[in-house]
Amino acid sequence: MEPRDLSAHTVYRAGRGIEEVARELGLDPDDMVKLASNENMYGPSPKAVEAIRDSAARMHSYPKASHADLAEALAERWDVTTEQVWLGNGGDGALDCLARAMLDPGQDVLVPSPGFAYYAMSARYHHGEVSEYALSKADDFAQTADTVLTDYDGERIVYLTSPHNPTGAEFTTEAVRTIAEETDEQTLVVVDEAYGEFTETPSKRPLLSERDDVALLRTFSKAYGLAGVRLGYAVVPEEWADAYARVNTPFSASELACRAGLAALEDDEHVEQSVETATWAREYIRGELAAHTWDGAGNFVLAEVGDASAVADAAQEAGVIVRDCSSFGLPECIRVTCGTREDTRRAVSVLNEVIEVVEA
């Protein structure tokens, strides 16, 4: 007995946790700073924590009401119908729902390189094929309509990330509109706005009122600080929103996740504090880090440091965990998540010392 041929599938390499690294290096986890996974530096909203605690005694019940309540709250926020909100187990779960709804076996998707590995992984799980469009470092990873359309060849789904991870680059609404207009009418353009709260660039939401071939992806993992409960969602055109009921797993968002999400939506102050601090940290890192960085949005900064693996390893031994971007195809770059003011200053100080030694 063997599984199906998985030779074309890759393994998702998540950022390592503080406890894991501390055990390996014999360090005190309380003395370490993790700025590797683009998590919220303030954690979840206190209201979400309270909601999780209050919901614990109801874990014997399926999340029928909470799922419906959260979909309704998000529909109101985005001015769509509840059917247009596809809740998932993280943004990854929403991507899986879109792949199930759209892909026939053997159909192609078009993904960015570098980019979020799960776009391709989800497509392959659903027996799809994967093509790539390149974001060029020489062009500062610019995301334009031509960037995508140059490599487009009739794929069923095109994935756009704005702000883009790990570069911070963004698409304009007009660029997304052009891509949707110039691709086949049966091509779905998915705009991943996981970091949408961390930019002043408007959401591409208006396109959903114009077209039936653009969908948005959003998450509670970043600005809302709920990465651990796994909660994300897609917002899709009304014309085919009812497909969710036929492709969704039973209750793909848990009771805890839905209750936490509902509470987090009510805590604007927590999100505003998170965004404000991330904005400060982005500017601080770009201004103080002894390395070339790229301008962009998101709660992270991409920096070119030469030997990224060596720099990340040395910083880790000094108690600061950052992301070696070799897995993104950028072995010369690290990604530094925006932390609190204290953690960001410490990380930059450690990295500057490490970079000087590694480059010597």
From TrEMBL:
Keyword GTP-binding among record annotations: no
Keyword Amino-acid biosynthesis: yes
Entry keywords, A to Z: Amino-acid biosynthesis, Aminotransferase, Histidine biosynthesis, Pyridoxal phosphate, Transferase
E.C. number(s) listed in UniProt: 2.6.1.9
Stored Pfam families: Aminotran_1_2
Pathway in which the depicted protein is active: Amino-acid biosynthesis; L-histidine biosynthesis; L-histidine from 5-phospho-alpha-D-ribose 1-diphosphate: step 7/9
Residue numbers bearing the N6-(pyridoxal phosphate)lysine modification: 222
Catalyzed reaction equations: L-histidinol phosphate + 2-oxoglutarate = 3-(imidazol-4-yl)-2-oxopropyl phosphate + L-glutamate
Superkingdom per UniProt: Archaea
Name of this chain's protein: Histidinol-phosphate aminotransferase
Organism, scientific name: Haloarcula salina
Recorded name of the encoding gene: hisC
